[in-house]
Specification:
Elements (H helix, E strand, L loop, with lengths): L11 H12 L9 E4 L13 E6 L13 E3 L1 H11 L4 E5 L3 H14 L5 E5 L2 E2 L7 H9 L14 H7 L3 H11 L6 E2 L2 H12 L5 E2 L1 E3 L1 E7 L3 E7 L9 E7 L2 E6 H5 L6 E4 L3 E7 L2 E4 L12 E3 L5 E7 L5 E7 L9 E4 L3 E8 L3 E7 L1
Parallel strand pairs: 4-5, 6-7, 8-20, 10-16, 14-17, 18-22
Antiparallel strand pairs: 1-2, 2-3, 9-19, 10-13, 11-12, 14-15, 15-16, 18-19, 20-21, 21-22
Helix pairs in contact: 2-3, 6-7
Length: 354
């Protein structure tokens, strides 16, 4: 209430006498303190006279009862920063008042102030970040661990195939701003895609697989590039012989009707003659100009589960060549980038992003 303490205008000699009494255990807790004198009329009430040191007779875990006068945060931090020779201090904008308080102390002692940089809070939607809550829920087996992909932890992001380089690039791009910001998963995924796109081999994954029998041909040979922009990496060569059966997604199969023509990517063209049967009609890719859709496929493959950060999953079949990609990030064509985690009876993958 900007009323001065009765002792505010004591002489230096009187203050030193009171100081000695504090150190000599004359006063009890809350009976005396050292106050940093600022400006009682300062427009910011938080910067008016504030306590720098106080008496505490609680037994210290290391020094026991050797000391009874202790500095509060702003006093101790100012001294530490000076003795450590800090040139820059990065802190949240919620500490702005503390920066102003510490500036008084630096000025009183005649010390060179470091450069203070304040940043706003970051709000991240759709994930849990409170570590105490996460820890409890891991104990309760709500989450499998700190790397559960439903979490927003660094371990969880790594498990999904989000690289540390992408995270660094994201934050360098955001920079240090004294305002609150909303974290953008879209931007992080864009940085990660730029990094992993050239490294990631391509494979077909068919979720909710439905059988498709191809008639009118005895043998087919598919040649799908491991990477469309890096031909020297090679191709996935797949040979199919009569009876020729492949699997396609139920989404694709439900969008085509009898008589429709489709292109099985990197394999052949077929005309649907019934729900689960297609007739081979050649290899001419100009069929696409006539409006034929491209769909992907798998013949025999590996049972696969893909887990998403929202807790959902998709099950299906991935082509055999995926077995050599354990630990790598690959792109399931027309699906997205995933990290291949392990394979036992089935392949376990974690979705990164589109």
């Amino acid at each position: 209430k900007n009323k001065p303490c009765p002792h505010r205008n004591l002489t230096p000699e009187e203050n030193l006498e009171e100081w000695e009494k504090m150190l000599s255990n004359v006063y009890g807790e809350e009976e005396a303190s050292v106050v940093v004198k600022t400006d009682l009329n300062h427009p910011n009430p938080a910067l008016r006279d504030f306590v720098g040191l106080r008496i505490s007779k609680t037994i210290h875990p290391r020094t026991k009862d050797k000391y009874i006068v202790y500095p509060l945060m702003n006093f101790s931090v100012s001294v530490d920063d000076h003795l450590l020779g800090l040139t820059h201090v990065l802190r949240g904008k919620d500490h702005l008042n503390n920066t102003y308080r510490q500036a008084y102390l630096f000025d009183y002692f005649g010390w060179e102030k470091p450069e203070y940089i304040h940043y706003g809070r970051v709000r991240i939607e759709d994930v849990k970040l409170k570590t105490s809550l996460i820890k409890e829920e891991i104990k309760k087996q709500v989450y499998s661990g700190w790397d559960d992909v439903r979490l927003g932890t660094i371990r969880a992001l790594a498990k999904r195939g989000i690289s540390s380089e992408a995270i660094r690039k994201y934050w360098v791009d955001v920079g240090v701003k004294p305002v609150d910001i909303m974290f953008s998963w879209k931007n992080l995924y864009a940085f990660n895609k730029n990094i992993v796109d050239k490294k990631a081999n391509r494979y077909f994954f068919v979720w909710n697989p439905q059988p498709l029998n191809i008639t009118g041909v005895e043998r087919l040979e598919g040649h799908a590039p491991l990477h469309p922009d890096i031909p020297e990496r090679g191709v996935r060569k797949i040979i199919l012989e009569s009876p020729i059966n492949v699997f396609v997604t139920d989404d694709d199969l439900n969008k085509i009707n009898s008589g429709d023509k489709v292109r099985l990517k990197d394999l052949c063209n077929v005309e649907l003659i019934s729900k689960n049967t297609g007739k081979y009609i050649g290899q001419d890719i100009s069929i696409l100009k006539e409006g034929a859709k491209i769909i992907h496929w798998v013949s025999k493959g590996v049972k696969t589960k893909v887990f998403f950060p929202d807790g959902s999953k998709k099950e299906g079949i991935t082509e055999e060549g995926i077995k050599k990609e354990i630990g790598n990030v690959v792109q399931f064509e027309r699906f997205g980038f995933v990290r291949i985690d392990k394979i036992n009876k089935e392949l376990v993958c974690y979705f990164a992003h589109k």
